[in-house]
Each structure stands twice: as C-alpha cells, then as structure tokens.
Design a protein that fits this description.
The protein is of the alpha/beta class. 36% of the residues lie in helices and 20% in strands. The chain contains four helices and five strands, in the order βαβαβαβαβ. Strands 2-1-3-4-5 form a five-stranded parallel sheet, sandwiched between helices. Helix 4 (97-107) links the parallel strand 4 and strand 5. Helix 3 runs parallel beside helix 4. The protein is globular. The termini are far apart.
Length: 121
C-alpha cells in the first residue's frame, strides 16, 4: 500500500548534497517523493513561498540559510496562509549563536530534525 508522494524542497540545491538528493528523488525514490522546489541563496521570495506548500524542507545550504527559512515562515504567517508549515531537516552546519536561536524558534512552529553529519560512513 502506498500513499501520495511526499513533496520536498531542497535548500542548497546547488551544493554536493543538494545535487545528490535531487538525483535520488528523480531516480530511486521517484515513486515515494517528488522535488517540488529547489531553493538557493539567490531564489526570489516568491520561490520560498511556493516551497511553503511542500511537506518537507531539506536544508544543506550555508549556515545563514536558516535566516531565509525563518523569513519564509514569517512571510507565510504574515500572508495568513492556512497551509501547515513544512517539517525541516537541517543538515547545514556551522550555525552561530543567533542562527541557533532562530532554529530553536522554528522548532516551536514545526517539526525539526538537525544533524551535523549525514555521512553514510
């Protein structure tokens, strides 16, 4: 039995991990999920808001990417969206104290998984 495919957004889609995830989503995991949005540092605010309709955001961007995530959450809230916020997987590392505080605030709004090492080995 299979349910609907999860809609994913990859933040940091141009990096090594982002490209690897894009490849897997388009191949081996295509029946279980779909890439709905690829976000990077130069993405327009509208792209971030479109990605808000995804089920899960996977972040392998730079540490400052957490600020873009928080801004998108704030913008969606300001627009009064009724869409539940996407869950977050944070694989970016090197967050400073302010970015960790932002991440803590996001964890009060949605599910967050943060890990500093997604290496298989």
């Amino acid at each position: 039995m299979s349910g609907p495919a999860a809609r994913l957004a990859i933040i940091g889609s141009r990096g090594r991990m982002g490209r690897a995830l894009t490849h897997l989503i388009g191949g081996e995991f295509a029946s279980r999920c779909s890439l709905h949005a690829s976000i990077h540092s130069s993405s327009a605010p509208a792209d971030w808001l479109q990605a808000f309709n995804c089920d899960l955001w996977i972040d392998f961007s730079l540490p400052a990417g957490i600020r873009g995530i928080a801004a998108a959450f704030d913008a969606a809230r300001a627009q009064g969206t009724s869409t539940p916020p996407p869950a977050l997987v944070i694989g970016a590392t090197g967050h400073d104290a302010a970015e960790r505080a932002i991440l803590q605030g996001l964890s009060a709004r949605t599910l967050v998984l943060q890990a500093s090492n997604f290496s298989i080995g």
